[in-house]
Give the backbone structure.
Amino acid sequence: MKRHTFNLFLTLTAFWLLNSGHYSALMLLLGLASIVFVLIITKRMDVVDQESIPLYLTPNIFGYYLWLIKEIIYANIVVVKHIWRGQKSICPALKKIKISQTTDMGKVIYANSITLTPGTVAIDLIDDEILVHALHFRDIEFLEGSEMDRRICLLERK
Amino acid sequence: MDIVINISSGLCLFVGSFLCLSGGVGMLRFPDFYTRMHAAGVTDTLGSAMILIGLMIISTGFLVFIKLVMILLLGMLIGPTTSHVLAKAALHNGLEPQLGHEDADNKETTSSNP
């Protein structure tokens, strides 16, 4: 709890400093006051925990981001091809796929990664299944190949 | 050095604009709601990212750069969330997706929307 509050304080301070660009004493004090105010509010709302401040993902997340960016670029090229070729080239599909993540955070990262990749959208998340709509059924087959699934499981391992 | 920065930034902006345009064309061309959402996804992700990267390259000063990075991250978080909510709302309110006929392939076909 203490540690998470401290992490939140550091993150907010960095966010404030990077956004403001004014470093006079008065401004810094006002910024500090607003940060403390936010901390008090989050404390009263009781929302500060590992889930709202997922800093434990930090060591592994950058590798995952790099891989995801590569996937996004590739998927974008595929979708743009479909767009310019027209309706004939697409073959929309709707399917439930199994996921192997156990934590809520893992499931959310997986579902959001699916949606972030153009061509596939995660529509619903029920227990350990995600309902996916895809522009082409081959995209779903790729997801079932579970490269992404495996990488997210690795991401969460501490 | 200056010319390299200008050219690479211009290239990024050009690619970004092309992707955004493609997203718009896809919105008009694709048959139903769900497939149109995929087209919007192109504008959402790589289209905006390339434009922001192009702006990052020519940005003056660290603070401007960081703000562009923040906009990029925010967009990457908000984009999928909103499209997911949109798709879920559409499906729960009974909008059936048009599914393709996988004629050449041996998977089971489910065609809807009579």
Observations:
- The radius of gyration of chain A is 20 Å.
- Chain A is about 65% helix and 10% strand.
- Chain A touches chain B at residues 18-19, 21, 72-73, 76, 79-80, 82-84, 86-87, 90-94, 111-113, 115-124, 131, 133-137 (CB under 8 Å).
